[in-house]
Amino acid sequence: MDTSKSLASPIELPHRSTPPGFLTGETIDTVQKGSGFVQYGHPYAALDRFFVGLKPQWSGINAIEFTENSPVTYVKKFRKAEANVRVNYLKATSHRNLVNLREVFVTDDSIFFVYERWGISLKEICQLWPVFQLGEVEVATLCNEILNGLKYIHDELGVSHGDLREENIFIMENGDVRIGNIGESMVRVPKPQGKDKDLQAVCNIVQCLLGLDKAESAGGTMRLLAGDFAGAPCSATIDELLQVCF
């Protein structure tokens, strides 16, 4: 016999219901209060908050929070595959060049990072080449902002980013440049020379944005200076690169 499906009444679908296609294999327990910033339990168990799950992920986002009278936030899920994930290193961030981490929820096998909203990624900009390409002045500005964000990560947070790529650097509607995935950076075990590799990643990003690895990249003095910057030695510091940023 054929069975027909009917839509459930909205009255029967409060916040506490499991977001569809989102938490397969996991149990939502009551949120237990932790330090306020780090809480233990599932974020979707909070009865006074409203999350919309995304499956598949969109730009690495697992859910978007649309709680009344609160700014929109993005949720990213990080599976604790490693035994020595450093939850005690997590802290709230506040810098204009970071996608700031607002809250963290810890479960038995996952960490949920609640980030402020972000914009278009540099990878999306790179994919527009050569139809659209940033000029040397724009790239120099971007580079300066990225280095300022890295300085905060290295000096104030005391960690390296470890995964600085075009995919996780974002441009906001107002032009701000923000580095993403700082929560993942704080919980990962740092790799040797991690901070030096962050700086090399900035140089690689400059090469991508200006197409310096392409035959068509010949240009004037600014482009030559950009090439010199992109080829900076591994021993260069953030302060040195900020002073010579083309």
From TrEMBL:
Annotated localization: Chromosome, Telomere
Key words, A-Z: Chromosome, Telomere
Pfam families: Pkinase (PF00069)
Keyword Cell membrane annotated: no
GO cellular component terms listed in the entry, alphabetical order: chromosome, telomeric region; cytoplasm
InterPro entries assigned: Kinase-like_dom_sf, Prot_kinase_dom, STE20_Ser/Thr_kinase, Tyr_kinase_AS
Span of domain Protein kinase: 29-246
Keyword Nucleotide-binding recorded: no
Source species, domain of life: Eukaryota
Cross-referenced SMART domains: S_TKc
EC category name: transferase
Any single GO BP term: regulation of MAPK cascade
GO molecular function: ATP binding; protein serine/threonine kinase activity
Reaction catalyzed: L-seryl-[protein] + ATP = O-phospho-L-seryl-[protein] + ADP + H(+); L-threonyl-[protein] + ATP = O-phospho-L-threonyl-[protein] + ADP + H(+)
EC identifiers of the protein: 2.7.11.1
PANTHER family reported for this sequence: SERINE/THREONINE-PROTEIN KINASE TAO (PTHR48015), SERINE_THREONINE-PROTEIN KINASE PAK (PTHR48015:SF35)
Subunit structure: Component of the EKC/KEOPS complex composed of at least BUD32, CGI121, GON7, KAE1 and PCC1; the whole complex dimerizes.
Protein purpose: Component of the EKC/KEOPS complex that is required for the formation of a threonylcarbamoyl group on adenosine at position 37 (t(6)A37) in tRNAs that read codons beginning with adenine. The complex is probably involved in the transfer of the threonylcarbamoyl moiety of threonylcarbamoyl-AMP (TC-AMP) to the N6 group of A37. BUD32 has ATPase activity in the context of the EKC/KEOPS complex and likely plays a supporting role to the catalytic subunit KAE1. The EKC/KEOPS complex also promotes both telomere uncapping and telomere elongation.
Protein name: EKC/KEOPS complex subunit BUD32
